[in-house]
Amino acid sequence: MQHLKDFFYNLFVESGLSETVSSYLNMLVLAALLLIVLFIADLIARKILVRAFHSFAGRSKTHFDDLLVEHKAPNYIAHLVPLLITLELFPIVFSDFPNFEAPVEKLIKIYGILLFIWILRSVLKTFETYIKTIPRLKDKPIDSYIQVVMLFMWVVGVGFAFVVITNISIWKFFTTLGAASAVLLLIFKDTILGFVASIQVAVNDTIRIGDWITMEKYGADGDVIEINLSTVQVQNFDKTITNIPTYALISDAFKNWRGMSQSGGRRIKRSIVIKASSVCYLSDERIETLKGIQLISDYLTDRQSSIKEFNQKHNIDKSLLINGRNLTNLGVFRKYVQSYIENHPAINKDMTIMIRQLAPSSQGIPLEIYAFSSDKRWENYEYIIADIFDHSLAAVPYFDLKVFELSIGPDHETA
């Protein structure tokens, strides 16, 4: 390069140009040649390095090197070759112009810092993607930790760039930075809170990627698709995306449905409201009619025999049904629903099955079905509920009961 510098300078001088003009033209020509050399060197380095990485990744058993290629780490590393060439040759290009040399040198060093950060970023993104391919780690908030490292990396990089521009000591810069820590804490408050929240979420295992959560304050009801330093992304069931501040997961209440997903069933908890005025005792004739319902035939026979034995033993006057022990249409209907649920193929028989009567209200008597469906998928779960309540509602009239239904108008019977 030194020989070329003298060659072009002497050529311009011999052509009759002044020394000043010859010096400027010499610098421009050398700068152009340097750019051409850098372009060719970068092209060759990228081809060689990327091809070598592809070849190595194809032979290796690990998936990490494939991800390095995917995140273009070899491309960024290849840029180091022209950078090193530039650092070696640019002093020759600007040797006659020391006023230009210092600013250009600073720009090259800043570019080197940014390139180094970009290489580290590519490696970190590769590591982040690789961690998510490990089954026991893929639901952990790895994004938060990667973002913290990248944030620290950028702070250090900006610090070094500032030192290069101002020519002050790196230790002096970070000492000054420490003095301004109160301001930085205020600026990065959300980031710091998010980082602390990410650690607590990971340690306490309160939330994972893939969990179904409900957080009414933020209108979130769906699956967690990403946990990063500042936000948790939830894809709602209508396919909209809700962003929740990460620190809100430790400061606000939310519901995580993971326990249901990992259990043997999904809870069904819904009521049929029976009109209180339709509840009555059952006569022997009515009981005999209800024995035609196969699910409760044996139950009615046993209960009828037991009640008759009790009433006879205690000399109960049965001229009025209210005397002694009796069966009611609501109680028999409750037993029928219980038997129906216990025999339903979509209900988990190993979990709680309960048909319970809740406290009467102004609307009537709620009869609650409490059970767990074996299929936890939302669409199938709703189908199972609909099937159970379709049947139960249709069965109500067979027991001379009525379902509460609010009716308004002169032509309608009021509740």
Automatic annotation (TrEMBL):
GO MF terms held by the record: mechanosensitive monoatomic ion channel activity
A Pfam family assignment: MS_channel_2nd
Membrane topology reported for the UniProt record: Multi-pass membrane protein
Compartment(s): Cell inner membrane
Assigned keywords, A-Z: Cell inner membrane, Cell membrane, Membrane, Stress response, Transmembrane, Transmembrane helix
One GO CC term, this protein: plasma membrane
GO term, biological process aspect, one: cellular response to osmotic stress
Transmembrane segments: 24-45, 76-95, 107-124, 145-164, 170-188
Listed InterPro entries: LSM_dom_sf, MscS_beta-dom_sf, MscS_channel_2nd, YbdG
Domain Mechanosensitive ion channel MscS: 190-258
Name of the protein in question: Mechanosensing system component YbdG
Species annotation: Mangrovimonas yunxiaonensis
